[in-house]
Amino acid sequence: MAPHRIRVGIDVGGTFTDAVAVDSATLELVAQVKVPTSHHHADGVAHGIVEALDRLLQHVGCDPDDVAFLAHGTTQATNALLEGDVAPVGLLGIGTGPGALPTRRLAGLARLELVPGKRFPLHYAHIEDPGDSAAVRAAVEQVAAAGAEVLVASEPFSVDLPDGEEAVIETARPYGLPMTAAHEITSLYGLRKRTRTAVVNAAILPKMLATADLVDSSIAAAGVTAPLMVMRCDGGVMSLAEMRRRPLLTVLSGPAAGVAGALMRERVSEGVFLETGGTSTDISVIRRGKVAVRHATILGKPSYLSALDVRTVGVGGGSMVRLGGAGGAGGAGGGPRRTVHAVGPRSAHIAGLPYACYAKPEDLEGARLATASPLDGDPGDYAVLDADGGRFALTMTCAANALGRVPEGDFAACDPAVARTALAPLAEALGTDVEGAATRILDAGVRQVREVVDAMVRDYRLDRDAAVLVGGGGGAASVTPHLAAAMGLTGRIAEHSEVISPIGVAMALVREQIERIIPGATQEQILGVRGDAEAAVVAQGAAPAAVEVEVTVDPQTNTVRAIATGATELRTQDRAHRADDAERLSAAAASLKTDPAAVDVLAATPAHTVYGTELRRRFRRSRHPVRVLDADGVVRLHAADARIATTTAAQAPEVLAELIRESTTYGDGGVRAPALRLLLGSRIADLSGVLDAEPLLALARSELRSRAGDEPVVAVLEARA
Known about the structure:
This protein is α+β, with helices and mostly antiparallel strands. Helix 12 crosses helix 13 (416-430) and helix 13 (416-430) crosses helix 14.
């Protein structure tokens, strides 16, 4: 039996469904299983989810009651859009007089291209008066007769006045079709974008509802009492009830599971996560302990779907080497040398060739370098080995193993001697040794990845002094170590990298994002949005005491955004290891890139220690970089130049008011309050998204309200440029 209850994460991939069990107290991996994804079963992917769970419980020796948390991630919604396998949507536009014109134009959404050569299946009907029940019924019958299987009601300004959409939905309810109102999907203005987001959500609704019902009933039949959660595309999980309402949130959730694993298990606070498979690498950013999220593009158009900002490069562990230069092998007899001019995008998997590094030594006897076209129409410059044992592909994984970059026991590890033997014919053609040939392969492969990583580091203004590169996926060792060395950054491969996605699902927090456009938002309105986000995650099962809320107020767009996250249980902290003072000091000094003797302890709470140093600069003000470490010795927060103050919960409002006044900046861009973060108990409350002093103080007071008056509070303030 597992020593504690377990958290179960299941990741449904295109080929396999992976499941892991994580100890709910120590958060250590207990077991993992893999089953084929059941696309063609009568119950669809739901069958594979249940089979994976059953095998996992048998492997661990747990009873269903021992499952404290159960979540799954699925590519079903993404695949439905990619393959055009969606339900016809009946769009009910509402408006009269001048207000009818913008809604009637929504009929043009039927021109959206779902897949090449196939238009979005949308049928439009107009309703002038949503209170006219006969007119509403006629409109529903019109779109239903045209083939609509799901309904969407949309009206201008419904985010402020939803009565019309709600009236239409209520009148249409007896028809038994799945329904949604546009204002339920997003509270942001922009009729066309809001409606487009809602109709795409509706198009995948029937398929997702069917799967949800099957999984839910099967899990219940298996005796699991923990509520079933589903992975979102922004790195969190949501309740099954919320997924039934907004299945669109599961689109693009595959990469989000991996970065959630990096965030929660690897505890990355600043850096880039690279999930490398056999064919491609998904690249995403973690900044200040948060995943980077933006509005996604769906069907070639912008949407209001907040999804992980993930950028994909066609280079993976199985990517094949491509040769330049004259034909022939060159060599001692003279003649031009070959060059490695690119790697990928074709992989050994697609070409149907085995990796040369995994061959038996005897199979590589008589190996000769040749070039080939993996598939019809491909360039004929892909390197292969023709040997006694058949034809083999030369890949990024072969090069990484030859250089010893793949750790022993890694998913992609092989006998390095075999990898070097496989690269010997290529090395001869290049006029170098095996190490040189392997380096050129990795140089060519990571060059493409580095371009994207450099762009994301710039886009999100990552602190290069604190940033780390973390690799996940089965092909992690073929990209991350070499890229980190090339960029001069710290890099590592995630523990259990081949199952980092289901680990991310198992450890993800319940998440909800509330966005509203409120010109000149008052303190009360900002606190109201914050409260709505907090209530939403609690309603989905998050323990109230474990909820954290990050609020951002964008004065340019008048958008108030609150992101709430919380665990479904109060997580214990009985990890086997706690760093001592010396270990934490050493880790802080390493992150600050200075000698431990130059590092000071600036403040501490029972959960966190604040370290800092001083960087003196000629003719300029000294900088004071700061690192906040938790009890495990992990950097949880960093600041390039910060001011630290220690107070108590009772005294904090008065102290913070003075600190904010002193740290507020004035310039052409207006008045800007400092970026404020508070160390409260085991939490770091991030209030840095608010630029105005009064709302900032109001949010700080709301964070302090439930604290004992003598509880220590540490404030970390960064003045804005």
